[in-house]
Write a structure and sequence with these properties.
Blueprint: H1 7-14, H2 16-31, H3 36-46, H4 52-65
Helix pairs in contact: 1-2, 2-4
């Protein structure tokens, strides 16, 4: 099984923009333990980082990729 062990591998597989969105979603999901709806509210409504349709696409991609991610955030 392929493991994504650092940000460079994530960016090389998904590109800089989507890789950044996945890192953001991972930080909110794993580190702050927020639900999908709470994350959507933060990035779409509060911060204005993504449009709703971009959030939906990035969330689906994140859900698919997160089982392969083992980022060392030390």
């Amino acid at each position: 099984m392929i493991q994504i062990k650092n940000e460079l591998e994530l960016f090389s597989m998904n590109g800089a923009v989507l890789g950044g969105k996945i890192l953001l979603l991972n930080a909110l999901d794993q580190n702050q333990h927020l639900s999908k709806d709470e994350i959507r509210t933060k990035v779409v409504d509060d911060y204005g980082i993504m449009a709703d349709k971009h959030f939906s696409y990035a969330w689906k991609k994140y859900q698919h990729i997160k089982k392969f991610m083992d980022l060392n955030n030390e």
